Model the fold of this input.
Amino acid sequence: MNVSRLLVLSVCCLCHLIWGSITTPTYYVNAFKVQYNYTQSQVELILPMLSFGKVLSPIPAVVYQTWGFGLTLLSGLTLSSGGYLCLWGSGFFLEICYTYPILVYTCFLFLGLGSAFLNLSVLTAITINFPGKHQGKAVSTVMTSYAVSPLMTLFVYRKWFAHGEIENDAGQDLHGFMLYSAVSVAMMAALFLGVSRLINRPEPPETPLLNDCDSEDTTKPRDRKRFISDALVETIPWTFYIVVTSFSLAACLCVMSILPTAELIMYMLSITTDLAGGVVKPVLVTVLAQNMGKENFAKAWHLYL
Done:
C-alpha cells in the first residue's frame, strides 16, 4: 500500500459521489413529466430505459478487454455527459420531444450504458491497485460513496435547481440541472483520467486460491514504510466511513426541512436499500477479482450484472 493507491481510492470515491446518481432520476422525474407534457405511462419508461442501458454492460467489458482502461473511461464520459447534454438541449425543442419521446428515451439509454462504463472503470481501478488483503475495504469505501450519491444529488437539486418550488414542478430548473450533471460528470472523468497513469502499472503475481492471497512470510522483518502504509490503509477507510456517515446525517437533516414526510420516508427506504447493496457488493467484487483473475474480472463482473 502506498500514496498512489490512496490517491486512486480518493479519486474513485469522489467520482462515485457524482456518478452514483446517474441511474436514479426519481428526484426530477415529476418535473420532467410536467415540463415535457408527458403522461404517467410515458414517464414510467425512463427508469426501464436506464436499466436497459445497464443490461448492455457486456459492451464495456469487451471494450475494456480489447482496448484497455483509457477507452473504457472515455466511452463512459462520452455517453454520460453526451446524454445529459442532449437532455439539456431537448429543453429548446419541447414540441419535438413531445411528438417523438423515443429521442428522450435514447438519451436515458445512453446514460445507463455510460454508467456501466464508468462503474467498470472505478471497480477495475480498485481491483488492479489493491491486493487481495485490502480489496474488500477499498471496494466498501467506494461503494459507500456510491450509496450516498443519490442523497447528495437530491440535496443539490432541491437547494439550487428547485428554487423553492418543491410543489410546483413547472418552476424547477430541470435543464440547468442537466447541464450541471454533464459538467460534473466530465470534471470527475477528467480527474480520474489524470490519475490513470497510477492505475496502469505492473501488477504483483497472484495466486488462484482465495485463502492464499494474503499469505506473507512472517519470518522476514517488515519494512517500515510498508508497515506505515498498511496502518494507513487500515485507518483511512474507517475514518472515511465516519466522515460519510456524519455528512449523511447532516444531509438528512437538511433534506428533512425541504421534503414532505411521505416522500422523505420513501427516499430513505431507497437509500437503505442502496446501503444494503453496498455491504454485499464488495464481497462479490473481491471474490470475483481473486478467483477469476484480474484479466478476466471485467467479463465476470458484467456477466454477474
Remarks:
- The chain has a mean pLDDT of 76.
- The radius of gyration is 21 Å.
- The domain at 3-199+228-304 is CATH 1.20.1250.20 (Growth Hormone; Chain: A;).
